[in-house]
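Milestone 3.1: sequence recovery, worked example.
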């Protein structure tokens, strides 16, 4: 009978809908289970500026005029692009909304994107230095580990009052300070992941001094030059022409050798005579 079949289909599809709903809820929970961290007051310790220079995108968030306990900046901010096996520096400037007590600071990146900051190398600094100076910059240099998952993931910054080291990314109800969460983007190593895009034209190659790069505007949003050691040498390159679909680069400050031109999705080799 048709109505029996329809009823059976409805029951079966309800089971599937329920199954998918449970899956969605489970997936949502897996990716939103970061531990809660915030102080019990905001007076004597604040995080004023977080600066992290990526390969081509810089996070520079200044919240000096805001007194907050926890801020979620995981959306709507610049997402610094951090390359596997490369070195970066995070600068955390401390401030206050009250007295000038001693303060410590630290930061964490969830490199394996599993919802916590407790895995190997995920703590970026020692968190031990204490300063009572407003405007003091806690500066930590770190290397993105080889096993970091490529893609966006979370970074946490904590500035807190007091003598104890800031080594607990889940510290909660602590005495004065601020916790801030951000998003960073992990990218593969430019030397180990050469990829090519037929829509990119680079000529002449080899070149004496200048190269012309043509392509679509989305692809040429990002143009960086790396040497064979993987060091970003773009600051030594002059952009003679810098249009959306065409760039002319002057490489005369670079010594002879092979270079990698990395655009948004592709890496191409260029030889300088
Ligand atoms: Ca802040
Ligand atoms: Ca983790």
């Amino acid at each position: 009978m048709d109505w029996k079949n329809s009823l059976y289909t409805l029951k079966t599809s309800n089971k599937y809908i329920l199954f998918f709903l449970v899956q969605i809820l489970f997936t949502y929970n897996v990716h939103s289970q970061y531990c809660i961290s915030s102080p019990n007051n905001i007076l004597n310790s604040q995080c004023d500026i977080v600066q992290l220079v990526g390969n081509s995108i810089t996070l520079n968030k200044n919240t000096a005029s805001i007194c907050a306990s926890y801020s979620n900046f995981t959306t709507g901010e610049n997402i610094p692009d951090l390359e596997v096996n490369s070195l970066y520096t995070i600068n955390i400037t401390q401030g206050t909304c009250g007295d000038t007590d001693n303060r410590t600071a630290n930061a964490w990146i969830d490199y394996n994107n599993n919802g916590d900051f407790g895995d190997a190398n995920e703590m970026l600094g020692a968190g031990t230095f204490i300063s009572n100076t407003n405007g003091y910059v806690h500066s930590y240099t770190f290397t993105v580990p080889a096993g970091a998952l490529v893609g966006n993931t979370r970074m946490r910054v904590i500035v807190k009052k007091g003598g104890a080291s800031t080594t607990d990314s889940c510290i909660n109800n602590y005495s004065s300070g601020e916790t801030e969460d951000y998003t960073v983007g992990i990218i593969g190593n430019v030397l180990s992941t050469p990829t090519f895009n037929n829509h990119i034209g680079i000529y002449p190659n080899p070149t004496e001094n200048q190269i012309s790069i043509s392509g679509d505007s989305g692809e040429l949003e990002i143009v960086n030059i790396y040497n064979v050691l993987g060091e970003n040498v773009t600051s030594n390159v002059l952009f003679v022409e810098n249009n959306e679909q065409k760039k002319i680069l002057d490489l005369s400050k670079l010594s002879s050798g092979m270079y990698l031109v990395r655009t948004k999705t592709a890496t191409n080799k260029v030889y300088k005579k």
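Residues 46-47, 63, 66, 68, 71, 178, 180 surround calcium ion (ligand 1) (CB under 6 Å). Confidence is low (pLDDT under 50) at residues 24-31.
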